[in-house]
Amino acid sequence: MSAMSSKSAKASYHGRKPARQGSEQRRLAILQAALRVMVRDGVRGVRHRAVAQEADVPLSATTYYFKDIHDLLADALTLYAKDVMENFVNPFWVRIHEWLLVNFPLYSGTDLKAVLPEVIEHMVDVAIDEVLDRLKNHRDKLLTEQAFWYAVLQDERLHPLALDYSQSVLRDISKMLELIGIEQAQNAGRLILMTIRHIEIQGLLQPVDSYDREVMKQLLLLQVRSVCHIN
Question: pTM (2 decimals)?
Fold first, then answer.
C-alpha cells in the first residue's frame, strides 16, 4: 500500500470473543443484523429478541455474545466504522495518492501548487463519483451512517467510539491536504467533510433518478477551492 495508507478506526470490541471460526461468523451475523434493525426500527428497536430474529439465530446466541444491549450496539457500530474505513475511506485516498504519483511525481521536485487547480478538480470528480456510487449502490451504508450518529448521541458511553471514527476519517483527508501543501489541513478537512455529508444527506432525501452530478460537483468544488485559497 502507498504512503497514504492509514490505520482503520480502532476495533475495540466489548462482547464475548468467539473461540472458533463458526462462532465468529455467527457473531458477525448478529452484529450485521443489529445494524439492519437499527436502520429499520431506530436505536430503541435494537433488542436481543429483535436482533436474534433478524439474524435467524436463537435468542440465547445474542445473550451469550453480548451481556447487554450496550455491548451489542457498541460492537455493531464498531464493525460498521471498521467496514467504512477499510472498504470506502482508505481505498479512496489510496486511489487519489496513486493518481498523484503517476501524474505529478511527488518526490521529483514537482511544484504541486502550480498544478493545484487540476489536482483539486480530479479529487472532487473522484469524490463525487464515490458519493453517487454510495447513494445509488450502497444506500444502506449511508442510512447506517445516519443511524450511527443518532445512536452515539443517545449514549455517552459510545462517544469515544464516535470520536475515534471521525478522527480516523479526518486523519486521511488531512494527510492528503498536507501532501498537496494546504495550510491548516485539519480545519480544511473538516469543512470538506461537512460539505460531503451535506451532499449525502440531500441525496438520501431525493429520488435516485433525480441526482444532478454537476450541481453536486460545483458545491464541493466551491468548498474545496475556498479552503485551498484558489480563486
Answer: 0.83
